[in-house]
């Protein structure tokens, strides 16, 4: 087992550098005990709307918040509650940072394929244990790693291994974005050590990731499982108004107060934790992060350094290429999406498509995965993400057909290679070097299979049966 | 050593749990348990004095095992893998002595006299590691492909079998594998079976490497008897022969014994053996995935969509229902279906349509966790490596969690062995012809 390597002030990247390099990880959560401090206050806080009537906090051993939403839409929807969790200090695993987050064992949905039968709801049969989650990111670039090549966890109670090893699911949640996680049953209260091993990241990599993250690495962290923990993560659950359950919309990323862009749930029961962060910054804006954290978050004086990036992809305007227009929009260039909300949807996934011209810095970077045998050309980037929070939809299979009149310029059904770029994050891309895509061409993106990632409540009914999306290349 | 609690276990469960424990006390408890079922001493058919009547291949087991209604070999139910290290006194200049050879051969002959060569009696193989053959100045003949074991996937960090030899004991009777082990390595009075005293001086030659001793079981209904073990959920199907809930090792998906045989040189009628030991995560498999998902991941998405498998594979017969098209469609399924099956993927390692591996894997609860000891015979270790690569499927455009059963298996150890022909099974030189 490796040494426990907590992040110290020395190992933590300078905040400014970090943000400057973040690229794909536009949101950085400052998770300094957001819940651990607040819940206690919640209990005596007469203003807290999630008080006693929801029953959470009575029996921490088994009590799990209710999760039933009747007839949720086939789209992203508001769950019943906001999860509470304990953030632990991030630990180092070679070039990778790992930010552990622990909650109570709760429902989620696994997916293995394309049809209805391929989706299964996991309901933990024991309240004893944790929903163990962690986010992985590259220390150097801040890029969240939304891909799984076989991460493994082993839980120890002292020298004794607890249960069998687990391969955590890659998962998406509205609050945590992309993360790895699973429900892990624990036999009793105590201090547990978790060993995480991360194999080489084998997805196609570009930019500052070329030739990196090629080693198998591991890290360990410890946590306490006790009444205090259960109090924190079950007692800290915040219920939305029942009237909002199942409404289209999404919870804001943890610690992000920019609910203005989140459609469905403006002005609902925001709790004090959110108010604390409602400090006037535009959290959705990638450049505004410098001020986001560090100062206003040391509630209880612990976890001050638990900065875990949220996996949001860049905003539309941050792509330095031609954003493709939606095809069925008659107005041509006017159909070019200008912001996240105007992106076309496929089973509620927002799909951004951008074309980078031959010779541009982006096209050169994105064409070069270090293999050396691909000549640069134009680069077509397709980036499916969740509506509202811009969480990347990884592990789907996409292909593309580019047509000009009756001529096929690329394809039919050319494979878009899943690619992790240090600037634009995870996307699906094609180097076009034996043809030239031009204004007026039609670009049809087909989703061969939907994102094979497990989902927390609110993402379980979307991104499953995804129809193709048609774009056109606008005039410059 | 604590024995399992008799009162809470069925007779079969109890006997099996004793194999995992091992030793003289376990043996006598096991004998008691197996004779008190109907008050009779239970019968194990005796062996032969005519050793020439036995097959030339140590791994000639199939002819001596029953077949099910579909013609699939039913492997012996109970297994022990005994790792062995040569003692100082059995070697001179590192190489085994002629005496040591004789002691070894005579111990094995004793077993053949005591037990019928069959699943009802005793089947066994004695294999040797590359580390063993290093002892000799000469190299193994070129036709023998026996590299050092190595990690075969990017996610694993296994330990390696670096001792000298591995004795694989197998029988349908748990007490047989126990008493053989006890007879060979126990320090109590020698057991007797069918008029043969199981005495031997094998401890002069070999030390048992206790921390790598492995045990296990396979057969319909055996896995479900272990739901008391942490990590083995109640959802393990009643009839399943393997922990993951499906039949495996069909007649037409296994290599024949002929196929895996080395056919020339001094080790003709020998073969190579790969042994890997792994944990299996059964709780997630059974509690977080449905049958449809499990069938997709174990066989193929088409098996799931067309309901070809049944609960545990009873719909399948003598093969796994993989047409050539289904095997060739693996890469396309990865993209179009988002999931590929283990069997479908591994079958890409077939050569001219023939499966190259003869799998003799069995379930285990060693370490009080569910797992699998994957024993595989093939002409060359290279065949195993190639098939394992096909099974890993790094080339496939599919999420790791949907890449067959990779999400559920955790390899801890690997070892490579040569199983010499019976004639050369006792401490062979690297090149007996030289
Ligand atoms: C827990 C572990 C495993 C389980 C439960 C398992 C189960 C199965 C099942 C149910 C089948 C289909 C039925 C059959 O054809 O026998 C199969 C086929 C197969 N498996 Fe596994 N298996 C496991 C591990 C492995 C490993 C480690 C290998 C190593 C390469 C492997 C190689 C194969 C091969 C070669 C086939 C047959 C492919 C063909 O039809 O040509 N399996 N396995
Ligand atoms: Cu999760």
How would you describe this structure to a colleague?
The complex is a heterodimer of chains A (476) and B (434). With 476 residues, chain A is mainly β. Helices cover 9% and strands 33% of the residues of chain A. Chain A has a domain of 157 residues: Periplasmic metal-binding protein Tp34-type (Immunoglobulin-like, Sandwich), CATH 2.60.40.2480. Chain A is built from 5 helices and 28 strands. In chain A, strand 20 and strand 21 form a beta hairpin. The N terminus of chain A is likely disordered. In chain B, the strands form 4 sheets. In chain B, strands 5, 11, 12, 13, 14 and 15 form a 6-stranded mixed sheet that branches. Chain B is globular, with a radius of gyration of 21 Å. Chains A and B meet through strand 10 of A and helix 7, helix 8, helix 9 and helix 11 of B. Copper (II) ion (CU) binds next to strand 8, strand 11 and strand 12 of chain A.
Oligomeric state, counting identical vs distinct chains: heterodimer
Number of strands of chain A: 28
Helix content of chain A: under 10%
Q: Order of SSEs of chain B, N→C?
A: HHEEEHEHEEHEEHEEEHHHHHHEEEHE
Profile the largest sheet of chain A. 11 strands, mixed
Q: Give the mean pLDDT of chain A.
A: 79
Summarize model confidence as the mean pLDDT of chain B: 93
Q: If you compute it from the alpha carbons, what radius of gyration of chain A comes out, rounded to the nearest whole angstrom? A: 22 Å
Helix percent band of chain B: 25-40%
Biased composition (Basic and acidic residues) (chain A): 248-271, 278-307
Biased composition (Acidic residues) (chain A): 37-60
Protein name (chain A): DUF7350 domain-containing protein
Region (Disordered) (chain A): 32-73, 248-307
